[in-house]
Structure formats: C-alpha cells, structure tokens
Amino acid sequence: MRTISFDGVIVGGGGAGMRAALQLAQSGYKTAVISKVFPTRSHTVSAQGGITCAIASADPQDDWRWHMYDTVKGSDYIGDQDAIEYMCSVGPEAIFELEHMGLPFSRTEEGRIYQRPFGGQSKNFGEGGQAARTCAAADRTGHALLHTLYQNNVKNETVFFNEWFATDLVKNQDGAVVGVIAICIETGETVYVKSKATVFATGGAGRIYASTTNAHINTGDGVGMALRAGVPVQDMEMWQFHPTGIYGAGTLVTEGCRGEGGYLINADGERFMERYAPNAKDLAGRDVVARSMILEILEGRGCGPDGDHVKLKLDHLGEEVLESRLPGICELSRTFAHVDPVKEPIPVVPTCHYMMGGIPTNIHGQALTVDAAGNDQVIPGLYACGEVACVSVHGANRLGGNSLLDLVVFGRASGLFIEDALRQGIEMRDASATDIESANERLVALNERNDGENVSALRKELQGVMQNYFGVFRKGEFMQEGIKKLDDLKERIDNVKLEDKSNAFNTARVECLELQNLFETAEATAIVAEARKESRGAHAREDFTERNDDEWLCHSIYHREGRAVSKRSVNFTPKTVDTFQPKVRTY
Amino acid sequence: MVTQVTSFSRNGLSDWLIQRVSSLILLAYFLFIGVQIATGIDYTSWRALHDTTAMKVFTLLAIGAYVSHAWIGLWTVFTDYLTEYMLGSIGNVVRPVLQIAVVLALVVYAIWVIQVIWG
Amino acid sequence: MLQVSVYRFNPETDAAPQMQEYQVETGGKDLMVLDVLEMIKAEHDASVTYRRSCREGVCGSDGLNINGKNGLACITPLSDAVKNNKLVIRPLPGLPVVRDLVVDMSLFYAQYEKIEPYLQNNSPAPAIERLQTPEDRAKLDGLYECILCACCSTSCPSFWWNPDRFVGPAGLLQAYRFLADSRDQATDERLAKLDDPFSVFRCHGIQNCVNVCPKGLNPTRAIGHIRTMLLNRAA
C-alpha cells in the first residue's frame, strides 16, 4: 500500500474542514483535505438562514454574552460554558474574516451585514425581548460560506484529495492517531495517508433516520471511524428535529422564515405556538417547536387528509420580502411541495436535522477520551471540528444559526492549535505494517466477501428502526425493542454484500462502507437514548418527562467496546463571565 | 490569458471589434454597389464612379474589411474544429496548412483588388 | 412502467459505452429523476454509477443530460422530463466519461480556478466588515448563486471545442461576480487576463447556458457585461 505523508490531514471538505485547512495552508505546513465529494458539494452548502453572532449590526448594543446566555439556555444547560464563551466571543472576529474573504452577506442600509431574528434569541440575558443576531446571505448563507471558503483555499493552494473516501483511522502502538486509510474513488486505489495531525470534519449522520433534511452523504463516517478506533462519542442521544422540513420530501425550510415573520398553523388555521410558547411563539427553541407540532398532530389538529403535518404560513409577508429575503425557499417549496409560498402555506413536519453529539473535544479541537478515573485524556494526533465534534456548544439542543458559527470558529481554532503544535514539533512513532493492516481489515473483508445482504435494503431497515423507535418522543420499552432490532441488524450490516467489485468510481463500495458508519452512529444513539432517563432538550421521553438535574446534568459518553455508557461533567466555569446556573427553560 | 500567435490582433477585444466594424463596412459597401446595380447603371458611369478617389478609398476599405473579417472568422472556425483536441495530432498539421492557404488566398485577393482599382 | 435508458460505461470491462434499458415502477408518482436512479441502483443494478449529494438542487453534484437536456436530476421531475413514457439519461456532454454517468470535471474546475475566483483587496481590512451598500450587494445577485454543476458549460459548443482555452459560461459568470463586487480591487488585472481571443470571446451568444441553468442564472448576460467592461477599459 502506498503511503502519502502530510503535516496535517483534514478528513471532510465542508465548512469546518475547509476553515481548518485554510488556517493550516496559510501557515505553510503541508496540508491535505480528503473529501468524498468535491468540496462545494458538502452539506454545509444546504445551510440556509444564517450564522448567528453578536456583530452588533442590527442592534449596536448587542453583546456576545447575551448570545452566550441564549446558547447555554438553548443547550438545556449541558453545553460546556467555556466552549460557548469561546465561540460567542471569538465569533465576531471569525465572521469579519469571512466577510473580508468575500462572503456576499446581505446588507443593511448602513452597509453592514444584515442580521435576522432566529429562534431562541434574546437581548439582555432573556430580559430584553427578541434579538436579531443571525448574519445572512439571503437564504443561501451556507452556500455562500462554503464557496467562499473553497475559493480562499484555492487562493492559498491547499492540496485537495477530492472524491477520496477515508475508511478507518490508523493508530500506532502507543494508541496515537497517525493518519487514515483512504480510497481514491476514481481509481479504487487504497492509500495510507500519514499525518501528524488528523482532523475529522466529516459532518453529521442524519441519514440514520428515514426522514431527514440531510444530504445523502451525511453518513456519520467520522463517528464510525472514531468508534471503531476506540474513541468514545458524547451526547449521541441528542438529535435535533428541525420543525420545518417539507412534508414528504424532507428538504429544509429555514427557521429564517419564522424569523422574517412567518408562523405555523394547524388544521384550524390557529397559530398554535402562541399556546406552547407565549413569549417567543414560533421562535422558541427548535426542540420546543418540534414537540409542539407533533402534539398538535397527535391531538388531531394536523393538516392534510391524514392529519400528519402542519403548515408554515408566509404569504402575509408579501411577494417582495419573500423574493428578496427567502428566494431559495420559494424555489424549494415550488419544486418539492408544489406550493407557491407567496400564495399558500407550505406543508411541514419535524425532520431529523442535526447531530448535537459527536467526538468529545476541547476548544482546540483535540479529541478526548475519558479514563477509568473519569478524567479527560487527549487522544494524540486526533482532532475534530464541526458537526462530528461535540465541543460541546450545543448541549441538548442547538440554536438555529449556531452550527455555521461552530464550524467556522472551531475549524479555525483547530487550525490555529495544530499550527502551533507543529511549530513546537510533534513526535509520534510510525505505524507498523500490522497497524496499517488492522486499520484496513474492514475494507479487505468487504472486498473479499461474496455473500450477504443488499446494502439498500439494510439501510432502509436501519432508517426505519431509528425513525420509529428513536424519534421526537421516546419511551423506554419502545427503545429497548428498537435496540433488539438493531442487534439483529448488526451482524447483517457487518456482513453486507458488495455486489460490484470493480475499481473505477465504485459508489457501491462507498455505500457499503457508509452503511457500516451509519450503523455505528445509530447504535450509539440508541444505547445512550435508552440510558438517559430524563427529558432534556431534544431528548424527550414519555416515561421520564422532566429534566433531572440531580442525575443527568452531565454529558453521556458512549464506548463501543461493551456498549458502555458513562457520564462526563459539563463545564460550568467560563473564564470571563459568571456561570449561567441551570434554570427552568421556558420560551 | 490564452496566447495564440495566429490570431489577427492577438487580442480578443480588438478581434471582436474588428469583426463588427468590418461587417458594417462590408454591409455599407455591398448595399451601395447593390443600389448602383439595381438602378441599372451602365458601364461608362460604372467606370467613372470607380475612377473617383472616394470610391477607390471605399473599395480599398472594403477589401481591408473583407480580409480581416474573413481571417478572423475562419481562424475562429479552424481553432474550434481543427485542433489537436478535436482531431488528435493530425489537427496540428491540418490547421496550419489550411491557415496558410487562407492567408495566401486573402493576400492574392487584396493585391488583385488593388491592381484593378489602381492598375 | 417507466422505460429508462441509462448510459453505461465501465473502463475496466467495456470497450465502448452502451445504453442499458430498465423498467422502473414509479407507482404513478411524479418522482424526481434522481429518485428513479436511486431505485435502479437499489433494486435493479448496484453498479449503476452517478454522483449525488444534497438531493435539493444546491450542491450541484448530479448534473446530467436528461432526455437531451442538461439539468439536475434531483430537481427535474419526471413530468418535465419524460416523453412517451421514456427517460434517457446520459452523462453531461463534452467532458471525458469516468464511468457511467460520472464525467471528469477537471477541465471545468481548471477554468473556474483560472479566473481567480476569490476576492482580491489589498487594502488593510477594517476591524469590522467592509461596508457595502445594498445596491452594490444587489449587483452580485444572479451571480454568486452558481453551484458549479457544469450544466451550462457542458451545453456550450464553444466549451466543447475549446474546454482548455474558453473559460465557459460557469467560469465567466464567476469572473463577473468578482468584477461586479464593489469590494474587489483587481478589476484591471482580471480584465487584462480575459482579453485574449479565447477566454471570453469564444462566446457567440447562443444562450444554451441560459436555457439549461437549473438555478435560473444568466451567464450570457454576465459575459455581455464583461465585454462592455473590456470595451470601456480600452476606450
């Protein structure tokens, strides 16, 4: 097997990966990005509404501490306050950098970046009413962000391995991560990519659910690789269901629609969020809105012949506002819902959207594990940023617009830290032939196996189980049943059949490898969801309906070996502000 | 910036401008000639007309426009279709040969016209 | 049953490409073309190869030639594409085929990189954002939305003949996106690099690009603006 060596290797060409890559490329270290798709095809491109940050454009008095308060509250108090503090305070600098790189933000009359209201935003620590803090490029902010980052990587001559798929981590005898095994999809060649710093920016895994806003490529590759390499994952039970996925198609309709004044209605035409969240109404936290929608549907006030969705009303905003502020939404709605939002409301339903959990890291992107004594230990050589990482700034529920900020700030932070570490010198022992071989075992087994089940059928079954047993509302006995079904799937997915063994651009092979990553993600989700016996943020249990701070004001940690679940304490010690103490969370 | 020695002015904008200006000149010239013929001009008047300096200049201008217009147009066609990319290595033989043939023909036309009007 | 005809070519086993026929049960639903491909891959033949990612028309992965017209498979409904119950799917024309419906986009990306697709401004950056009026920002609308799907460039004969020298509609649209940006200072350098007989001037205005753009953008108009800027610069 050929070996290619770099100082830093970034797995994933989305927003986080390209922001990290840009930082490293500017430092002059030999950096490569491995991306299974051409970078601008990454899922960041689908982000619509914006990037939340206190740049004090819409409100000159705006303060990052207010943003921090909202984020802590939104996380239902299991977001790490040191990380949230870092994100919110460094955020403005990171946003201005993006603007200087050329990101075509929408503008205010003063020429500053346009900011719109988003859910869960407040002024003055929840006392000053709704804030408008989400910086936007119309409703195509992710697209504008991703393209700008790619363009600046082109400018800085970053090395891209486009359409290469990383299969597994390579660890040396000391347990340090020293690179990845990757396949060049076009030729089928397998290569060991050696690196002093391996950054996972592999994104989310929304495809574990049957109904998702996520792209086909969001298959939890980083989670799968990490778990197989003995790296734990954190808060995997926390999956965000976005209130407004287009009914039937699953495609996303930005929260910015409600930020601009749209609202949800039930079959009676009632603006029902007024009942569930009297203050914030349609701009309550996403978990709150999603649950309210499901309750409306369960109580028989859903729309349509099957009463299984609600509607998002936008027509009262007028054609001009819709076409200038939400042009992409108009397009998507016409294509996928066959509805013109200028005239009629859009049918929507809560849809899996975002993985709050992931690989635990510190604010420098260093991946962490927890030792037997419960102390954090840095895993040498491994970093993570973006959706695959759990820093954790989102805790149990992410606020809209915070994912883009997360990926920019922590992609940048990882790059900065690695640059510094490389400058000081990183010494790691080389991987032995056996180390590389064992990392390649899964791929070899897949290539050699001639029996087994069809990848599409298995994937569909897995997605069905997750959708039915681990959705918006969860219940212990159902989840145990779901886990049994996953147990049955485990071996079958381990032994999935690769029907096409050719080398040239073999997407069937990639799909098999992705399915195994999906399964790792799904299993972690299921085990931890069953274990967390409370309701918090996006994790809503019918058998434990209340938040239980005595036992569960903590992160969950999942180890693949023995499917062990442990607890990790949440950081309550920000450096420059007072701790935000847990309170009852209402909107 | 793509450089190509055989383009007329080696500059896309001037080629483009020349193409448009020359087409206007040719249009004017042929319209003028067409009107003359349509009005049933006889040989004596035709000779007289072409003996005037103004008409000589006009004709000279027209042949100039014709040569540049034809060259730019054909060069564009040749570099579209008769390239290594389209034909393989033979393209690098076919195109220069045809280009030389076109250049020769256009030079001959120009000299011939000059001989006719000033000879 | 929908009759689907798919262009197949595997460089490892096939001497020449061929069309393969599939019968797909759509259940009378107005699916997207991508859904049909997914059904073929899942139920008929796992070796059918194509690119896809977002499935909502923003990532630009699945540009294909569908019943003779370039478009994105994920946002082209069967009701728009199918004629006489027949769907013919081919790779984007004019670029080398890697396998089946996957083309080698290197030439396309190289043209994009050639126009230096990044903001150039050497003045010291302010502590906040660079200001831009809403009017100046509006000049970027219809330009920055390009998703690099290559539907336009691969429908352009000039790009077919000179993919290495003609920038093509997608690249030129982006060239103008930076020329039009009030924050960019490299206007003259950018124009100087475009002022050769190939980069811009191989556009003959036939507007195939406008006709196929899945995002409704207008590269021909942008090319016209570049030409005007070149004229003003020379004058």
Could you describe the 3D structure shown?
The complex is a heterotrimer of chains A (587), B (119) and C (235). With 587 residues, chain A is an alpha/beta fold. In chain A, 35% of the residues lie in helices and 21% in strands. In chain A, strands 1, 2, 6, 7, 8, 9, 16 and 17 form an eight-stranded mixed sheet that branches. Chain A has a four-stranded antiparallel sheet with strand order 11-14-13-12. Chain A is globular. The mean pLDDT of chain A is 97. Chain B is an all-alpha fold. The longest helix of chain B is centred in the middle third of the chain and has 29 residues, at 53-81. Chain B starts with 11 loop residues before the first helix and ends with a helix. By secondary structure, chain C is α+β, with helices and mostly antiparallel strands. In chain C, 32% of the residues lie in helices and 14% in strands. Chain C has a five-stranded mixed sheet with strand order 2-1-5-3-4, with helices on one face. In chain C, strands 6-7 form a two-stranded antiparallel ribbon. In chain C, α3 (106-114) packs parallel to α6 (168-179) and α6 crosses α9 (219-234). In chain C, 53% of the residues are buried. The mean pLDDT of chain C is 97. The interface between A and C is large, with 59 and 56 residues.
Quick tags:
heterotrimer, A: 587 residues, alpha/beta, 8-stranded mixed β-sheet, 4-stranded antiparallel β-sheet, 35% helix, globular, C: 235 residues, alpha+beta, 5-stranded mixed β-sheet, two-stranded antiparallel sheet, 32% helix, elongated
Summarize the entry for a quick read.
Chain A is an alpha/beta fold. Chain A contains 17 helices and 22 strands. The mean pLDDT of chain A is 97.
Helix proportion range of chain B: over 70%
Q: Compute the average pLDDT of chain B.
A: 91
Tell me the number of strands of chain B: 0
Strand content of chain B is under 5%
Radius of gyration of chain B using CA atoms only: 18 Å
* Series of H and E elements of chain B: HHHHH
In terms of DSSP E residues, the strand content of chain A is 15-25%
Class based on secondary structure composition and strand pairing of chain B = mainly alpha
